[in-house]
Amino acid sequence: MAQKVTLQSSFGLVLLAISIFVSVAGGLEKSFASVPPLFSNGSSIMVTTSSQGAFDGPKLSIVNNSSFDWWYFDICSEEASVQIVFITSTVSAIGHPESSVPLVTYVTLNGLFPNGTAFAYVVPSMSVYIATEGDGSSGFYDGFGSWKGTPDMSYYTISVDSEAIGVKGALYFQSAAPARYPLQFAAERAGSTEVLAPNFGWANAVPDSDAQAHLSIGGTKLHIVGRGYHDKNWGDAPMQDTTKTWYWGHAKVGPYAIVWFDYISRDGQEYYSAYLTKNGAPVILGSSMTVRPYGRNETQRLYPPNPSSTEPDGFIINIDAGNAGKFEFTASNDNVVQAIDVYTRWTGQVTGGPVGGEQFYGPGVGLWEWMRFIS
Ligand SMILES: *[C@@H]1O[C@H](CO)[C@@H](O)[C@H](O)[C@H]1NC(C)=O
Ligand SMILES: *[C@@H]1O[C@H](CO)[C@@H](O)[C@H](O)[C@H]1NC(C)=O
Ligand SMILES: *[C@@H]1O[C@H](CO)[C@@H](O)[C@H](O)[C@H]1NC(C)=O
Ligand SMILES: *[C@@H]1O[C@H](CO)[C@@H](O)[C@H](O)[C@H]1NC(C)=O
Ligand SMILES: *[C@@H]1O[C@H](CO)[C@@H](O)[C@H](O)[C@H]1NC(C)=O
Fold first, then answer.
1. Domain contains 2
2. Which ligand is nearest to the CA of 222?
3. What's the CA gap between 264 and 258, in Å, rounded?
4. N or C: which end of the chain has fewer CB within 10 A?
5. Ligand 2 in reach of 43 Cβ (< 6 A)
6. Residue 267 and residue 141 share a domain
7. Is the pLDDT confidence value at 157 over 50?
8. Per-residue pLDDT averaged across 247-259, rounded?
């Protein structure tokens, strides 16, 4: 493990690296890995606790035909949104077997222009490198672009320059809320579990940030000033084999930043993780929450969702913050950002606050999704 390499900003210098190198320089642990574009055969061992490396680093020993690991970023405002996912997974391991991407290394870029028109791109990449320094990660996907995080995860940038899809520009994330695992803050560290549910990991480097996107998409300029978010998920079994459904999302409502994840495993067990900060300071992190769909039709409100469920009008998020009281937020599905067979993503207004206390109606903006393998 203690192989020494000098990390330069140019990824080209280490083109031949095919395994993870780890070094310690200037007190910060660094690592560098190249991810082969085709899946490997063998056992994919996943990270399960915080003692196993960088917070935002790769979480699999290898990517095999049933494991997955991705870095997710989004920025949203009331007018527009963009989501970028740097993926290392076969399409079948994340429940999209109908998709034709032949590589495990690809990027998805989605979003909404202010006029309500959606855009969607998939960019396979033959050369992928992931580096870590301290807890932050950086990645390079040839043919699409790269991301770079600071060692303390307080600042991330993404740079896109893809001739293949005609997209160019940059995204900036200045963190405004502390990083956390499902049940513990990154700063607490010692032996924190990174597992939200069996075979499913979650590390949320940037739960909320002041963010900007400046992109040129097929010649059209897209400028967003809003809230940004970054996390990563991973697993060592195909998602559709272990997951029945989940509601995930993030939002900024008045002084509150919230992140919700309400997950039901294939065997019907519910797992939660609620996150709430006020003016950037933690209020609660843990499992006492519910996220429930609402809508006029009964089929929109079904919980747990089943094959006759239809898309709700929004979600009600209840958080029990113990001594800090109870909170309720309503996320209204105003805009469909992305809709495929297994999930729908929305942006919209989020309102709420402490139950019986001051309610915040704006500015409230967020991005959320309903994932399901229930048909
Ligand atoms: C993995 O195994 C499959 C089936 O035996 C084979 O086609 C493929 O070439 C192997 N991949 C690697 C990277 O060895
Ligand atoms: C991938 O690795 C996991 C974890 O060891 C294992 O359960 C699974 O069978 C492997 N998948 C393949 C296709 O080899
Ligand atoms: C990978 O797994 C999928 C889903 O289980 C299967 O259909 C496919 O044949 C596998 N690919 C290879 C090359 O083994
Ligand atoms: C919205 O803007 C995009 C980008 O300029 C354009 O391609 C699309 O046609 C527009 N849609 C509508 C409904 O005007
Ligand atoms: C609500 O139910 C009506 C009548 O069954 C149906 O036409 C409509 O599509 C449903 N809407 C949603 C969002 O489920």
1. no
2. 4
3. 20
4. N
5. yes
6. no
7. yes
8. 97
Q: Which domain holds residue 177?
A: 15-237
Are 212 and 350 contained in the same domain?
no
Instruction: Map residue 89 onto helix, strand or coil.
Output: strand
Q: How far apart are CA 35 and CA 40, in angstroms?
A: 10
For residue 25, the model assigns a pLDDT of 62
Task: Please name the residue whose Cα sits nearest to atom 7 of ligand 3.
Answer: 92
The answer to the question of residue 3 being in a domain is: no
Taking the CA of 114 as reference, the closest ligand is 4
> Are 181 and 287 in a shared domain?
no
Would the pTM of this model clear 0.70, i.e. be above it?
Answer: yes
Whether 320 and 228 map to the same domain: the answer is no
Cα distances (Å, whole numbers) of residue 95 to 8, 89, 239, 311, 373: 37, 10, 6, 19, 8
Q: Is the pLDDT confidence value at 16 over 60? A: no
Last residue of a domain, one of 176, 207, 237: 237
What is the separation, in whole angstroms, between the first and last Cα of the chain?
Answer: 45
Protein residue with its CA nearest to atom 11 in ligand 4: 117
User: Structure tokens of 283?
Assistant: 């209020």
Residue 41 CA: nearest ligand 2 atom is: 14
212 and 267 together in one domain: no
How many domains, in total, are found in the chain?
A: 2
Residue nearest (by alpha carbon) to ligand 1 atom 6? 41
Q: What atom of ligand 2 comes closest to residue 44's alpha carbon?
A: 2
Residue nearest to ligand 3 atom 5, measured at CA: 92
Residue nearest to atom 8 of ligand 4 (CA): 117
Has residue 149 been placed in a domain? yes
Phi and psi based region of residue 39 (left: phi greater than 0; alpha: psi -120 to 50; beta: remaining): beta
